[in-house]
Amino acid sequence: MAEQDPKKDSQQPQKFEDWFKNLVEKIRPGARRLWELRKKLLIVNGIVAAITIIYLYLIAKPYYESTVTILPEFGSKTTTLSGLTQLASLAGVRVGESAPAEIYQNLLTSETVLSTVIYANYQTKKFNKPVNLVQYFLDDDSSENNVRKNFLEVYNILSRQVIKSNVDRLTKILTVTVTMPEPKLSAELANRIIEALDQYVRTKRKTFAVEQRFYLEKRTAQVKDSLTIAEEKMKQFREQNRVVIQSPSLLLEQGRLMREVEILNTVYIELTKQLEIAKVDEIRETPVVNIKELAEDPIYKAGPKRVNNFITVMFFSIILSGLFYIFQPRLKHYFRLIRGEKLIANNPA
């Protein structure tokens, strides 16, 4: 066995050398053909390069990006929803926590938020007068018959091409990026989207606060009545049973009544707190969305990235043209076979 090990070691380099020689033999015909057709390759790729340069530098329009960063809520702010969550936890119910950044990300591209953005007027270089986004993108004053159709068309442009959002999984910071052909319009549109989002959230919060206030007022009154009844029962029990230490059944009944009063009292205090919070939320006008800073007019163009695009196009052009010329003889052969079979099928003997 020991004598066979050196033979195996000597066979491994031999196998690799044979494999490399076979690889070179397979590549050599294709490389030779590419060398013979180098002029055609240069001409084809030169034409592609010229077309790409003309498109990137003369036809492709520059675009600008404006970014707005929305921060998560810091500190220990107690809202109506969080208070009700705490109240539910007293009863042993687990309520999942929501991530505002992810909710904002979904709301950004909703029709309700974007409708105010689309129909707002903007001062642009394209028009001499302020126009809305329907007029800007479609060059149309939108007749009454096409209002909904035009709105959906512009909405799709904004949600799929113009607005991009990303939520950092670790920090929960939401980044909103708006891409437009004009720098000022890009920044103004980004800020208008955030304003519309904030207004939408504030409106919903007010509606929620009103509904919660009605519910909390009703529930607080019910709990107060139950607490009054429980306290009255506790009072009567103590008046009727001055000494309960010597009776286990009386001790058990006293503990049950005290526990009922304690639970109802805790619920009543928490409901009262949440009722006051709901009243404050109902009249509060402060912004809800925590914005790091508003977007400003971008100075530099975000694209098109001409050098990167040119390199990418030329890379694929060289690869595809090389593969085409390498396999051109085989392709011609297959086409001839297919054509011959069709001729035989059309002209049977």
Enumerate the spans where pLDDT stays under 50 for 5 or more consecutive residues.
90-98
CATH topology of the domain at 64-221 and 287-293: Bacterial polysaccharide co-polymerase-like
Tell me the span between the first and last alpha carbons.
Answer: 69 Å
Shape: elongated
Q: Architecture of the domain at 64-221 and 287-293, CATH level 2?
A: 2-Layer Sandwich
Widest beta sheet: strand line-up: 2-3-1-4
Question: What average pLDDT do the residues reach?
Answer: 81
Provide structural commentary.
By secondary structure, this protein is of the alpha+beta class. Among the domains are: 23-60 and 304-338, no CATH class; 64-221 and 287-293, Bacterial polysaccharide co-polymerase-like. The chain contains eleven helices and four strands. It has helices at residues 4-36, 38-59, 80-90, 100-108, 111-118, 133-138, 147-162, 183-240, 248-283, 306-326, 328-346; strands at 64-70, 163-167, 174-180, 291-293. Strand 2 and strand 3 (174-180) form a beta hairpin.
Topology:
Blueprint: H1 4-36, H2 38-59, E1 64-70, H3 80-90, H4 100-108, H5 111-118, H6 133-138, H7 147-162, E2 163-167, E3 174-180, H8 183-240, H9 248-283, E4 291-293, H10 306-326, H11 328-346
Antiparallel strand pairs: 1-3, 1-4, 2-3
